[in-house]
Amino acid sequence: MRSVESFPISARVLHWLMAAMILAMLFIGVFMAATVGPAYHTLVDLHRPLGIAILLLALVRLANRFLFRAPQLPDTLPPVLRLAARASHVVLYVLMIAQPLVGWGMLSAGAYPVTMWGGASLPPILPHDTELFATLRHLHSWLAFSLLAVVLAHLGAALLHGLVLRDDVFPSMTVRRGGKK
Amino acid sequence: MLALIRKNLTEKGGALRLAAVVAAPAAVAAAFVATAGWLSPDRLTPATFMRDFHAVDGAHPGFRRNHAKGVCVSGWFDGSGAATPLSRAALFGKERSQVVGRFALAGGAPNQPDAPGKVRSLALRFMPTNGAEWRMGINDIPVFLVRNAADFSDFTLATAPVPGTGQPDPARIGAFLDKHPETKNALGLLKARALTSGFANDTYNSLDAFLFVNAEGVATPVRWAMVPEQAVEPPAAGEGGQDYLFDDLLKALAQGQLRWRLMVTVGEPGDPTADPTAAWPEQRRKIDAGTLTLTKAESEDGGPCTGITFDPLILPEGVAPSDDPIPAARSAVYSRSFALRSGETKPPSEITPAAVRSGGQ
Ligand code: HEM
Ligand code: HEM
Ligand code: HEM
Prior knowledge:
- The complex is a heterodimer.
- By secondary structure, chain A is mostly helical.
- Helix content of chain A is 68%, strand content 2%.
- A two-stranded antiparallel sheet of chain A has the order 1-2.
- The radius of gyration of chain A is 19 Å and the shape is elongated.
- Chain A starts with 8 loop residues before the first helix and ends in an 8-residue tail after the last helix.
- By secondary structure, chain B is of the alpha+beta class.
- Chain B has a single domain, classed as Catalase HpII,  Chain A, domain 1 (Beta Barrel).
- In chain B, helix 3 crosses helix 8.
- Chain B starts with a helix and ends with a helix.
- At the A-B interface, helix 1, helix 2 and helix 4 of A face helix 1, helix 2, helix 3 and helix 8 of B.
- One protoporphyrin IX containing FE binds next to helix 1, helix 2, helix 3 and helix 4 of chain A.
- The site of one protoporphyrin IX containing FE has 29 residues of chain B, from strand 2, strand 3, strand 4, helix 4 and helix 8.
- Chain B: It holds the Pfam family Catalase.
- Chain B: InterPro entries: Catalase, Catalase_core, Catalase_sf, Catalase_SrpA-type_pred.
- Chain B: Belongs to the catalase family.
- Chain B: Its cofactor is heme.
- Chain B: This is Catalase-related peroxidase.
């Protein structure tokens, strides 16, 4: 079995920070869209800047990804699964960037101010267009559900590596037993 | 790989590990479904209100789910500077902000006939040159009818026409009022209010309480009203054409500008902020925060008020929500109404571009 190296510390920190943020955003989003309580306003106010932070971190992470060679997946995995793993990572990157852009774009198209923190707000990135607003509002839900589905599959796969296959994949994103890098 | 899985599964605890691989994503998925409310059909959501309005007024695709009959207006707001000690919002300074607004009748029917006693509303979007915008929707009644979103939903459903008579069921309304003396009281105040002859000389109230926050960060509870400069007159006898309120407004705007004073009522400790059915004492200090001038009417069809929602929680720095639960509910429900109508094909509005061009003749 060919041993894989670990992801650099920058990639691991970004991975786990963003995993927590994205999961939180999925739950915040789906809860706020289904409540009329005072939490609605508080959560939307949190959802916008947190979503934009994810967008910025995703861009940093993507740039960072080109600065190192990602560890190879072990060759115990059939090629088709290795391809699927790589494809799912591409899909995760696409969704991490597309979802906040759609959120920002939909508020722009609906002529909502895109308020961040402390009274600051972002400029619109799309023209005011209500049909576009309606379409993007649907898209924001469907991209969220797709993101959740891919994350769940990703979580299952990671646990399969970590708990059942017990190969080098899980430690490549966490810490290696014995402190070996 | 399968061989490796099989081998590792035969080890001690192998089955448990495999179970964890399946259970973890399943648990997250279940938590998501529960958070979304898909397992709790009784949870009050924006969709509940869409069903409520549908039950009362039927389906009117493309139109606002409430306050459906309306007309766009525009003009400006001149801050007087008098509210700046209470709020740091830029638009209260001595400067001019562009305004887009909408006059409407409460209710989800987009072509209901005008009548003197129907609830009239004014919605406004202030767009200061420097600084964040402010949106509001305000009504010509003295207090709101219910304390919270759940009561709004129950009361709305109680007023839905029942099959057979096509009228609301008095027994159902009675049962609600027996449980809600505050609504009974509010309805009494609503019926006793002095009606005016039209939109132009009517007073529109925020009903909800908000906080003004000044440069030092001190928060003051406030309510406000748009008070007309136009002479107040009672409804003329014999009026009551299908669109007479809107036609009169169009006529007035064809002849000249219309003005309102933004009168801010300053709350004192003990004044109820979380209960929009409770009026504040009459002697509270009032501040003249500026003048609203409206100069132009446009039909919803092609007008600037259609493609936006007057979400009452779109607030500038210096205006903040209070513990009044109604504005957050409105924000959530308006967002749903706006998203739905934006995706639908809208038939022409009752107040057409031709009616506006003719100046309500
Ligand atoms: C919102 C949640 C998550 C997202 C968006 C996400 C995204 C990604 C992406 C894009 C990669 C490819 C490496 C990179 O470029 O950074 C990756 C790798 C990885 N992730 Fe996640 N992840 C999430 C949650 C999780 C969770 C919950 C686990 C484990 C319990 C996990 C375990 C792993 C592992 C082990 C790898 C390394 C795979 C390899 O060696 O190719 N991830 N993740
Ligand atoms: C990774 C980033 C994001 C995720 C995972 C996410 C997720 C979600 C989810 C799950 C919903 C609920 C959908 C539904 O149940 O229909 C939602 C709604 C929403 N999101 Fe996001 N979102 C993200 C970024 C953003 C950004 C950047 C903005 C705006 C700047 C934004 C604005 C909104 C708004 C306005 C709603 C709708 C609220 C309503 O219906 O009243 N989102 N989001
Ligand atoms: C929980 C209570 C309330 C609910 C569920 C509710 C619901 C709605 C809905 C669905 C709309 C249409 C929004 C759109 O499509 O853009 C609307 C419009 C409006 N509402 Fe409410 N509303 C509530 C309370 C209030 C209160 C307390 C006021 C006044 C102080 C008010 C004043 C208005 C006005 C003026 C409009 C018309 C806005 C326009 O002309 O575009 N509403 N309401």
